[in-house]
Write a structure and sequence with these properties.
Blueprint lengths: L2 E5 L2 H10 L1 E2 L7 H4 L6 E8 L7 E11 L5 E2 L8 E7 L1
Parallel strand pairs: 1-3
Antiparallel strand pairs: 2-6, 3-4, 4-6, 5-6
Length: 88
C-alpha cells in the first residue's frame, strides 16, 4: 500500500468527492496508473478555485482507491481519466 498526494483546487476536490472519483494532472492517465487498489489518496488544495488568488492551503480530502479500473469520462470537449475512490 502507498499514499499519494494530489494538489488540486478545493472546488475540484469537492466535485470529485461528490462523484466518488479521483482525477489528477488535468485529467491525465499517468498519475492514476501508478496507483493500486487499497492505496491512500490525500488531496491538498492551495486555493479554493483553479487559478484563484486567495490562498487556502489546506488538506481537503482523504480516501482509498477502490479498484484497479481507470476509465475515460466524457465531459464534452474534455475527456479526463478517472478512478473510483471511497472518501472518508
Amino acid at each position: 500500500m502507498k499514499a499519494w498526494l494530489g494538489v488540486v483546487s478545493a472546488e475540484h476536490v469537492e466535485r470529485g468527492v461528490e462523484l466518488g472519483i479521483a482525477q489528477l494532472g488535468h485529467g491525465k492517465r499517468s498519475g492514476l496508473a501508478r496507483m493500486q487498489a487499497g492505496d491512500t489518496l490525500i488531496y491538498y488544495s492551495p486555493s479554493r478555485s483553479l487559478g484563484g488568488s486567495v490562498p487556502l492551503r489546506q488538506f481537503t480530502a482523504l480516501g482509498t482507491i477502490v479498484d484497479d479500473v481507470i476509465w475515460q469520462a466524457d465531459e464534452g470537449s474534455f475527456a479526463p481519466y478517472r478512478r473510483r475512490v471511497r472518501y472518508l
